[in-house]
Write a structure and sequence with these properties.
Layout (H helix, E strand, L loop, with lengths): L4 E2 L6 E4 L1 E3 L2 E3 L2 E10 L2 E2 L10 E4 L2 E10 L2 E4 L3 E4 L3 E10 L2 E5 L3 E4 L2 E10 L2 E2 L2 E8 L6 E10 L6 E4 L3 E10 L2 E2 L5 E4 L2 E12 L4
Parallel strand pairs: 1-6, 2-7, 5-8, 7-10, 8-11, 9-12, 10-13, 11-14, 12-15, 13-18, 14-19, 15-20, 18-21, 19-22
Antiparallel strand pairs: 3-4, 16-17
């Protein structure tokens, strides 16, 4: 999957559960030996997922490369609404989030990684123009200001009751304005195994 573009979310793949008559059917992906390179999701407000956007789905990934993908949230992957990811032998390099999670952004999701390489990813931050509202009248003034939104979580941003486990992690040179490697917000992280390295992160 190379150089795909989405105007909203999921530059290469958008995957979500479906509901019918109060019954929810979850979608799934089982992929091996696949590369996701230079994919982009352009939605500014939320969601993102430069390569993959997933909502309430099950993913199993093995021997996958994510390189040079970009989005506002989750440069490579965004997981929402109870999604479950199991991944082994994964490489994340040079992915960029313009706000949160250079590699991945999660909300209320579960992630299990084994034997992963995470190098040179960034959460860069971005500037947006916002209309000025009069504090007294509550109406627009016709003026606008530029607001800088900081980059958070150079590699990972685990949010809103997410759970993540890393087993055998090699991380190097990930960068953000805040939390050079990982941001954990109302979530849980476990790092296990005999060989885990996190170095040269910058914030």
């Amino acid at each position: 999957f190379d150089s795909n573009l989405a105007s909203k979310q999921g530059g290469a793949i958008y995957l979500a559960a479906s509901s019918d008559n109060n019954t929810t059917t979850r979608s799934s992906i089982n992929a091996s030996y696949v590369s996701f390179t230079s994919n982009t999701a352009n939605q500014v407000v939320q969601y993102g997922g430069g390569a993959l956007y997933c909502s309430n789905v099950v993913l199993k990934l093995d021997n996958i490369i994510f390189d040079g993908n970009r989005a506002i949230f989750g440069g490579a992957i965004s997981l929402y609404s109870g999604s479950e990811l199991t991944a082994e032998k994964i490489t994340f390099t040079h992915n960029i989030a313009d706000h949160q999670g250079g590699v991945m952004y999660t909300s209320k999701s579960t992630v299990s990684f084994k034997d992963i390489t995470v190098k040179g990813n960034k959460a860069t931050g971005f500037t947006a123009t916002e209309d000025v509202i009069d504090e007294v009248t509550g109406e627009l003034t016709g003026e606008a200001v530029e607001i800088y939104n900081e980059g958070v979580g150079g590699a990972f941003f685990f949010n809103s009751s997410s759970y993540a486990i890393f087993d055998t992690l090699n991380a190097d040179g990930n960068i953000a304005d805040n939390a050079g490697f990982i941001m954990i917000n109302v979530s849980e992280l476990e790092i296990t195994g005999e060989s885990n390295t996190i170095k040269n992160s910058q914030a």
